Amino acid sequence: MTARIFTKRTVVFSLLLMLVSCAVAFAEPIVIPSLNIGVGTATKPNEVAVTVQIFLLMTIMSLAPGLLIMTTSFTRISVVLSFLRTAMGTQAAPSNQIIIALSMFLTFFIMTPVWQQINKDAYQPWKAQQITQEQAAERAVKPVRTFMLSQTREKDLALFVSLSKLQRPKNAEDIPTLTIIPAFMISELRTAFQIGFLIYIPFIVVDMVVASVLMSMGMMMLPPVMISLPFKILLFVLVDGWGLVIGSLVKSFG
After folding, report:
1. Residue 8 · residue 178 · CB < 8 Å
2. Among 62, 96, 165, 224, which one is least packed by beta carbons within 10 Å?
3. Exposure pattern of 30-44 as b/e (b: 16+ CB <10 Å)?
4. What's the CA dihedral at 48, 51, 55, 58 to 10 degrees?
5. Nearby residues of 190 by Cβ (< 8 Å), 6 or more positions away
6. How far apart are the first and last CA of the chain?
7. Residue 29 DSSP code
8. Count of alpha carbons within 13 Å of 163, Cβ hemisphere only?
9. Are 144 and 116 in contact (CB under 8 A)?
10. What letter does residue 167 receive in the DSSP assignment?
11. How far, in Å, CA of 108 to CA of 74, rounded?
12. Distances (CA, A) of 36 to 33, 39, 129
């Protein structure tokens, strides 16, 4: 039980460090710290425990990017942008690197208020040694939980609560964070697929019109996709597609 509690607290505090580092990077000049790592002989039991904690913390930190993806708006944004590229039929334009980069910066833009609150309520007091690490972890997880719960459907949340075989929670505070995260991801995927369906509709209409025109002209051997692609790109540019898609994505988290 103690090891389990320690692991949960380590995960939360690792997320705290990663989130705050992103927020501080946009607010303050980047300062490169010095780091000295040494291996010595442990002479006391406490020193062995600290060494194990350091290795566990380094392991969790290596998984932190994946944990950040699961607790932020990154999932919805990246899936929607992938749907957009597939609906347009532009194959590798924009490339995966561009989609990931755009998704990351949009995630920073959307999550900045959450990270600023973590920086103010948890990181800065902990840095000033006003609170303990456990208190900082508890304060850091609250804004993230609030954000995830605001975007999670009750049906998805109830599903994972039942799967975890927990007692019926009285309120949101009784739901463990590790139960909220998968429910949040399922809700994000559902919302992303809904937006992707709406994105597909105008491009499918263009494909159908082009295919009907080519068939009526007897040009059945000419691929309709080759002819419809310029029209889809033209339509997307004329309606300011990037502004509409990005604006709708950001507003969907409001």
Report:
1. yes
2. 165
3. eeeeeeeeeeeeeee
4. 160
5. 153, 156
6. 38
7. -
8. 11
9. no
10. P
11. 9
12. 10, 10, 22
pLDDT per residue over 163-221, tens digit each? 888 777 777 787 888 888 889 999 999 999 999 999 999 888 888 888 888 788 777 77
* This prediction's pTM: 0.72
Phi first, then psi: what are they for 24, rounded to 5°?
A: -70, -30
Q: What are the residue ranges of helices labelled H in the chain?
A: 2-27, 45-70, 74-88, 96-118, 124-127, 133-151, 154-163, 177-216, 224-238, 241-251
Measure the CA angle with vertex 105, ends 121 and 137; round to 5°. 25
Cβ atoms 227, 214 nearer than 8 A: yes
Of the candidates 195, 129, 184, the one whose C-alpha atom is nearest the C-alpha of residue 153 is 184
Tell me the C-alpha distance between 14 and 4, whole Å: 15
The Cα 183–Cα 169 span in angstroms is 15
How far CA 158 is from CA of 48, 73, 174, in Å, comes to 41, 21, 13
Tokens of 175: 């739901």
Rounded CA-CA distance 223/117 in Å is 53
Each residue's pLDDT tens digit, 157-175: 888 888 888 777 777 787 8
In angstroms, the CA 174 to CA 160 distance is 13
Summarize pLDDT for 79-113 with one digit per residue, the tens: 999 999 888 888 777 888 999 899 989 988 998 88
- The C-alpha atoms of residue 207 and residue 213 are separated, in whole angstroms, by 10
